[in-house]
């Protein structure tokens, strides 16, 4: 009986890891889906250590997929600071805009992160916010922007940053919010996608660093280290495949399907959970 219980625990965390990995890159809210699954399977949602752990796995996957862009931006950004050559200016400005867009979510997270986690992490809120995500995705489903990386402005980065800050609420997709904000300010789809996921890197890294004490002080971590590791690996692999798939979806402009999905799931959650 004990063996069955341990196997079931591992299976549940494997499912949570796969869910995090699949839903993190696509605009349907990974945090919202984790809350739904925890409710369905009766997994205790004590603390944030599990979310931080699997979010770090998703971060590693994003770093792998966007490694070429990251290396180029870092190289050209440093070269511009040193040489002031015009060829590297666009990449340097892109870095600055990413930094500016990080500020709103950092401020909201520091000031209100604990309150949001405590009061809004329930299925009814997730159902409502999934409907909001559905409406936002429907609004921008057919937008075709004109702005490339070198056409962005401080105003654009602030708007995208504020949009992503809203996504600290469970059920509001982080990738969805930043992509919606990017598309509304006129970015082309590929630019919006790149900006959104490069923006995810400092936000996720900063959150992970700030919440290290949460993991260290989690009384359940030592008991669940094996399920956590399994979830971590599952999240990493699933994020790799999901992000590659979503990149292809974005190039074809099929965001309307995610709007339908969020609408259906949001209604079901409100009615039955």
TrEMBL record:
TM region(s), chain numbering: 47-66, 94-113, 119-140, 192-212, 224-243, 255-272
InterPro entries in UniProt: UppP
Family note: Belongs to the UppP family.
One term of GO molecular function: undecaprenyl-diphosphatase activity
Membrane topology (UniProt): Multi-pass membrane protein
Record GO cellular component, one term: plasma membrane
Keywords noted in UniProt: Antibiotic resistance, Cell membrane, Cell shape, Cell wall biogenesis/degradation, Hydrolase, Membrane, Peptidoglycan synthesis, Transmembrane, Transmembrane helix
Location in or out of the cell: Cell membrane
UniProt miscellaneous comment: Bacitracin is thought to be involved in the inhibition of peptidoglycan synthesis by sequestering undecaprenyl diphosphate, thereby reducing the pool of lipid carrier available.
Organism expressing this protein natively: Gracilibacillus thailandensis
Primary enzyme class: hydrolase
E.C. code: 3.6.1.27
An individual GO BP term: cell wall organization
Protein name per Swiss-Prot or TrEMBL: Undecaprenyl-diphosphatase
